[in-house]
Write a structure and sequence with these properties.
The complex is a heterodimer of chains A (251) and B (261). Chain A has 10 helices and no strands. In chain A, helix 6 packs antiparallel against helix 8. The two termini of chain A are 27 Å apart. Chain B has 12 helices and no strands. The chains are: A mainly alpha (251), B mainly alpha (261). Chains A and B meet through helix 1, helix 4, helix 5, helix 6 and helix 8 of A and helix 1, helix 2, helix 5, helix 6 and helix 9 of B.
Chain lengths: 251, 261
C-alpha cells in the first residue's frame, strides 16, 4: 500500500473504532459501569475540564517533575554508561544483571523513598529518574562499546584530547544508541512520574486519575485516561520523529 | 564488544561470577546506605522478612502474587504470540497497525487499571487481566520482529526439499522466530511480575504489593525493604535465567537485544 493509502486506512480504523463504540454506547449496548458515556461525551467532559482551568496546575506539576527527572537521568545515566564502558571487564560480568534492570519493579521503591524523603516532589522525581536512567546508561554503554577501534585509533593518531574524542568520535558514532536511549529514558521518566502520582500524591495527571477512580467520578476518570493516552501517543511519535531526524543528520 | 580481554571472556562465560558480584555489590551498597537511620541493615531486613514467612503471615501473599503473575503472563503472552505472528506474517497489517501498537505499548499501564476493574470487577480477575495487558504488547512486538525475520531463502530451500507444512513450521519457522520469542517472553515475564505488584499496590488486600503499603503504614521499614527486595530477587532471577537461554539461542550475540529493549 502507498503511504497515503496506509494513512487513510489508519484514519478509517480509528474513526470507525470510535464510531462503533459511540453507536453501541448510544444504543445502550454497553453497561454504564464499563463505559459511563459515549466517547463524544467523554471528549466533552475533557473539554469542560480544560475550559474550567482545573487541569492546568496538574499538567504543570507533571511536566515539571518529568523535566527534572529526565534532566537528572541524562546526567547520571550518561555518567554510569561511560563508567561501564571504561570498565569493560566489570560490565561484561554484570551484563545479565544490567539487562535485568528492566525487570526491577522500580515503582515499588516509591514507598521506600517516601520513608526516606517524606511526601512531596522528591520521591516522585527520584523514582522517575531511576526509571529514566536505566535505558540511558545501558544504551550509552553499548553504543560506546560498539565504536570501532579504527575510529579511536584515527583519533589517537591525530592527537585528539579526551574531550575532542568524545565530541568528534564517540558521540557521533554511538548516536543511534544514545539517542534511542534518550527517547526511552524520557518515556520511562514520564511513566515513573505518572505511576508515582497515581500511587500516592496530591497533584498531577496520575493523581487526577486515581482521585476520580477512588471517588467514583466515572466521567472524569475516563476523560483523564483518554487524555493521558493521547499525551503519551503525541510524546511517543514526537520523540520518534526527533530520533529519525537526528539519525538523518548524522548519517 | 571489541575491547574485551581473556579475563572478561572467562567471566562473561560463567553466570555465577556476575550474579555473585552483583549480589555482593548490592549488599555492600545497602550496608553503606544503612548508616542512615531510616534505612534498615540488610541482615535485619532479612530476619524480619524471614520471620513473616516463618509465622505464615507473608506466605499466602507471596503465593498470590506468583500465581497472578503467571496466570496473567500465560494469557497475555498467548494473545501476544498469536497477534504477533499475524502481524509478522502480513506486511499490510503491519503497515496499518504497527505504529499504533508501538505507541500504545508506551502508555503507562497503571492508569489503565481502573478501566480493567470497570470491566472485570474488583478481585483477582482484574489483576490477572491487568497483568495480561502489561505483557501483551512486549510479547507481540518481539514475536512480530521474529516472524518478520524468517528468511525467504530458507523457505524456498524448504520447498525445494518438499517439506510438509508441519515440517516447515518446526524446521524453518520456529528456529528463526525462537530468539525473538524468548526476548519477548523474558521481557513479558518481567513486566508481569512488576505489574502484578503494581496492581496490588493500587487496590486490594492480597499479594505482596498490598504488604508493601501495609509495612509502610506500620513504619515496619525492615519488612518493607525485605518485601521490595524479595520482588526484585524473583524478577531478576527469572530474567537472568531466560537471558542465558536467549544468549544460547542467539549464539552469544546479544547486542541487538540491548538496543531493542
Amino acid at each position: 500500500m502507498s503511504r497515503l493509502a496506509v494513512r487513510l486506512t489508519q484514519l478509517v480504523v480509528l474513526v470507525g473504532g470510535f464510531g462503533f463504540v459511540e453507536a453501541l454506547a448510544r444504543a445502550g449496548k454497553i453497561r454504564t459501569t464499563v463505559l459511563p458515556a459515549p466517547p463524544s461525551k467523554l471528549f466533552r467532559t475533557l473539554w469542560d475540564e480544560f475550559a474550567a482551568g482545573a487541569i492546568w496546575p496538574h499538567l504543570g506539576a507533571t511536566a515539571m517533575r518529568v523535566g527534572t527527572a529526565f534532566g537528572l537521568a541524562l546526567v547520571v545515566g550518561f555518567a554510569i554508561g561511560i563508567a561501564l564502558w571504561k570498565l569493560p571487564v566489570l560490565a561484561s560480568a554484570l551484563e545479565p544483571l544490567l539487562a535485568s534492570l528492566y525487570a526491577v519493579p522500580w515503582l515499588a521503591f516509591y514507598p521506600v523513598l517516601l520513608v526516606l524523603m517524606g511526601l512531596g516532589n522528591g520521591p516522585m522525581i527520584v523514582t522517575a529518574m531511576i526509571l529514566g536512567l536505566v535505558p540511558l546508561a545501558l544504551n550509552t554503554y553499548i553504543g560506546f562499546s560498539e565504536v570501532g577501534t579504527i575510529l579511536l585509533k584515527v583519533g589517537r593518531v591525530n592527537h585528539l584530547s579526551p574531550r575532542q574524542t568524545l565530541v568528534k568520535i564517540l558521540l557521533p558514532a554511538a548516536s543511534p544508541y544514545v539517542v534511542s536511549g534518550m527517547k526511552l529514558g524520557f518515556l520511562y521518566a514520564y511513566l515513573g512520574v505518572i505511576g508515582t502520582e497515581f500511587l500516592q500524591s496530591s497533584q498531577g495527571l496520575g493523581f487526577l486519575v486515581s482521585t476520580s477512580f477512588f471517588f467514583f467520578q466515572d466521567l472524569k476518570l475516563y476523560a483523564y485516561i483518554l487524555f493521558i493516552v493521547a499525551i503519551t501517543l503525541v510524546l511517543f511519535y514526537g520523540l520518534d520523529q526527533a530520533e529519525q531526524w537526528i539519525g538523518r543528520r548524522f548519517a | 564488544m571489541t575491547r574485551r580481554g581473556a579475563l572478561a571472556r572467562l567471566i562473561a562465560a560463567s553466570p555465577v561470577v556476575g550474579v555473585l558480584l552483583g549480589l555482593v555489590l548490592t549488599t555492600a551498597a545497602w550496608y553503606v546506605a544503612s548508616l542512615h537511620e531510616l534505612v534498615p541493615a540488610p541482615h535485619n531486613s532479612v530476619r524480619a522478612t524471614y520471620r513473616k514467612f516463618a509465622t505464615g503471615e507473608l506466605t499466602p501473599h507471596f503465593v498470590w502474587t506468583m500465581r497472578a503473575s503467571f496466570q496473567g503472563f500465560a494469557i497475555g503472552a498467548g494473545f501476544g504470540v498469536v497477534v504477533g505472528l499475524a502481524l509478522g506474517a502480513s506486511y499490510r497489517l503491519r503497515q496499518v497497525f504497527a505504529e499504533g501498537i508501538y505507541g500504545l505499548a508506551s502508555v503507562p499501564k497503571l492508569i489503565l487499571y481502573p478501566l480493567v476493574i470497570a470491566v472485570f470487577g474488583l478481585g483477582v480477575a482484574s489483576e490477572i487481566a491487568f497483568v495480561a495487558l502489561s505483557c501483551f504488547f512486549l510479547v507481540l512486538i518481539n514475536t512480530m520482529i521474529g516472524a518478520q525475520e524468517v528468511s525467504l531463502v530458507l523457505l524456498k530451500v524448504g520447498r525445494a526439499y518438499n517439506l510438509s507444512r508441519w515440517q516447515t513450521l518446526a524446521k524453518v519457522f520456529l528456529p528463526s522466530i525462537a530468539p525473538s520469542l524468548v526476548t519477548g517472553l523474558r521481557l513479558g515475564l518481567s513486566m508481569a511480575l512488576v505489574h502484578a505488584v503494581l496492581a496490588e499496590m493500587t487496590i486490594g488486600n492480597d499479594g505482596l504489593g498490598t504488604r508493601i503499603w501495609f509495612t509502610y503504614r506500620d513504619l515496619d521499614v525492615a519488612s518493607l525493604y525485605g518485601i521490595v527486595f524479595l520482588v526484585v530477587i524473583v524478577g531478576v532471577t527469572g530474567n537472568v535465567l531466560l537471558w542465558y537461554l536467549e544468549k544460547r539461542l542467539r549464539g552469544g550475540d546479544m547486542k541487538r537485544v540491548w538496543a531493542a529493549t
